[in-house]
Every structure is written in C-alpha cells, then in structure tokens.
Amino acid sequence: MEKLPKEKFNVNQNILIYRDLLLPYSETFIPAQVSALSRYSAFYVGTLKSTDQNRLISPNFKQLNLSDFTRYATLSRLLFKLFGYLDVDWLKAIAIENPCLIHAHFGPDGLWSLPIAKHFNIPLVTTFHGYDAILSETSLNIPSLSFKLYLKRRKKLFKEVSLCIAVSQFIRDNLINVGCPTDKVLVHYIGVDTNKFQADFETIRQPIVLFVGRLVEFKGCQYLIRAMERVQSIVPESELIIIGDGHLRNELEELAQTRIKRYRFLGYQPPEIIRDWMRRSQVFCVPSITEPSGLTEAFGMVFAEAQAMGLPVVSFRTGGIPEVVADDKTGLLVSEGNVEELARSIINLLENDLLWQYFSENGIHRVKTLFDLHKQTRKLEVIYDNLLSRFSC
User: Fold this and answer.
1) Could you tell me the residue range of the domain that residue 260 belongs to?
2) 168 and 371 in contact (C-beta within 8 Å)?
3) pLDDT by residue (tens digit) across 300-309?
4) 139 and 280 housed in the same domain
5) Is the domain of 183 the same as that of 232?
6) How large is the average pLDDT for residues 154-165?
7) 262 and 278 share one domain
C-alpha cells in the first residue's frame, strides 16, 4: 500500500482527540471537556464505533473512524495496534484536519496514538483516568488481551509521550509507581459543567439515598444495600434509588429484595434524568472499594456533580474520593467496608437539617472553586500552549 510522506505542520489550533472506541456512554466527561474548549478546535479519531456515539458526540465535531475508511476494519485495527500500521485513507483524512496536537484519553489509547503522533511530528498528551494507571501485569482479572498488550508496552508510552495528565493526585502517585517519569506527569481535574449541574432551591428534597454508577464490584453498591437495611429501620420512609447497570445487577436486585423495603433499580439514565434525581435526593452515596487487583475510584466525577447540585455525599475513604469530597465539610467519608459507619452517616444527613445545609452550601462552593469545567478547560488550554511552545515541529 502507498505510504504517505511525513509532513510538518505549522502550529495551529486544531486538536486530535483520540479514543479507540468512539464513544462509550459512560464517558460523557470527554465530549464535555472538548465542547468547553474556547481557543482550540477539535475533532475525534478512533478505530471502532460505539452504539452510543451519536448521543454523546455533537454533530458539530468531525469523527474519523478507521472502520469508515477500510473494507477490512478488523484486520486494519489489529495491524494498527500490533505494528502501528496506519491505513492510508484514514491518514489522509486526518491530515486534512491539520492537527497540532493529539490528546488521547486512557493509557491504551495513548499507546495506540503514538504512530499517529510520530507521523505528523506533533506532541501527544494522554489523560489517565484510573485502571490504566493502577493495574499492572501481575494484576488479577486484566480486562482484555488488548489491555495486556498495553501493560507490556506501557513503558514505551511513558518514554515517548509528551505529557501524561492524571485525573487526581491519587492517579499521579500510581503512574509514578508504575514507572512514569515525574517530570512528565501532572494533575489536572477535568471539571463539572456548573451551568448544567447547579442546585435547585425550589425543588423539595425527599429522603432519597441516590446511587449513580456501574453495577460492578468496586463501585460498592452491595455495601450500600446492606447499610440501607439499618437506615430504613431508623428512617423507614427513606428510599434507595440506583441508577446504572452492570453484570452485578441481578445479584444486587436479589440482595435488595431480601434486605430492604423501599428501593428502585432504574438502569442507565440520560444526564438530564440523573440531574433531576440529584435535585430531589437528600444523600448521594457510591461507596467505592479497592479490589484485590488494586482497581478503585480514581477521582469520581459523579461526586463533584452531586456536590455542584448541593447534594451532600456519604462514601468510603477510598482512592481519589477524598480529593473531590471534603470530609466533614461537603460530606462524610468512613472507613472502607464499614457498613455500620456508612449507615450512621446516611442517617445523620437524613435527620440533621443543619448539618445537611452546611454540607450542601460547602459542596456548591467547593465545586465552583476547584472543579468548574470551564475554569479547568482554560487551564488545559494553557497546558496545550506551554507544550506547543516547547515542541519543535
């Protein structure tokens, strides 16, 4: 096949956003950050389409998916990941967009992006969101063969990437522990759109404990259900609302049926429905745990979203959660796995109006100060500026 010559581009303002799967429904934080860019434009590149993509990526943003440029998508993806082979038609389409920088989300995507960055001689930024920084080759239950390949080649990524962004200090520490040079990694919180996630002081709060997350082991929903048994014995009118889905759903529904009286499993819900439940609820609780593999909560954007809406948080003191939730100021964090402490904290917020109000006001202020999406995206653009000013094309 024809091989395109390497080209050098003058610095411009177009960013290539790389995500191998465009775009899982759970990754709303990626298009939120992209849409908040003000001095840079962006387009998306990946190799595989998600059935969720049309609901997440605005039609205003171009998508260049490898599967749209080749009759042999599976083979082309395999050659790309194993050997860095770049399909010529896909490459031509990317060249037309004249990118000045690649921003890949998740470690594996950074690794897959290296051949593209090399071809166009542009810097590569990779944001690490959690498992990509925590898991190692010795970890249990590595999710896929593709991820095993990433773990074997992660040091290559650390050597050749221009910059690693960690979504929390917790993730930065983990990146350094697995070999990332300290001078190549910085912490940058993505942020929450406080124009969308804002408190509604007219909606009457109900004694609802809200869980939003995937129904998988490390999200800890099983601990919350057990805690709600104690909560409902003291506050019988309280109700547990569970939004999200996953392989544990049937098991968790059976547990809830045997332990508690008032509960609902709502499955996946769109952002506007989640925001409506956050306005109505009195306590937000996702008691994430640390799995034996080391997998745990990297930061927890949903905790910031809840606080932005004036909804106090109760959770375990796990992973990056203490960075987003200020214990005894915006919520209550308890020892990981302690169901009794979890229940007492939920009861406290359901019954203590003054404490609830204090946490609610502090949470709104904390998010606006530290985790506002638009403020954080301005900081990201400065990161881009500084990187481009040092990069010799």
Assistant:
1) 208-370
2) no
3) 999 999 999 9
4) no
5) no
6) 96
7) yes
Contact partners, residue 258, CB within 8 Å, separation at least 6: none
The per-residue pLDDT for range 1-26, each reduced to its tens digit, is 334 444 443 446 999 999 999 888 77
Q: For residues 152 and 144, what is the distance between their CA atoms, to the nearest angstrom?
A: 13
In the predicted model, what is the mean pLDDT of the chain?
91
Among 357, 303, 330, residue whose Cα is nearest residue 192: 303
* Edge-to-edge strand list for the sheet holding 208-212: 263-267, 239-243, 208-212, 283-285, 313-316, 331-334
Nearest Cα residue to 276 out of 214, 208, 326: 208
CATH at residue 363 = 3.40.50.2000
Residue 128 placed within a domain: yes
In a domain, 348, yes or no: yes
Q: Do residue 121 and residue 220 come from a single domain?
A: no
- Which residue in 356, 309, 353 sits closest to 332, CA to CA? 356
How many structural domains does the chain have? 2
Res. 334 pLDDT band, cuts 50 70 90: very high
Are 281 and 307 found together in one domain?
Answer: yes
249 and 379 inside one domain? no
**Mean pLDDT of all residues in 16-38:** 91
Q: Same structural domain for residues 171 and 255? A: no
Place 140 in a pLDDT band, splitting at 50, 70 and 90: low
Alpha-carbon distance of 201 to 199, in angstroms, equals 6
Which of 236, 322, 332, 246 minimizes the C-alpha distance to 284?
332
The verdict on residue 382 lying in a domain is yes
Neighbouring-strand partners of residue 126:
104, 164
Q: Do 167 and 59 lie in a common domain?
A: yes
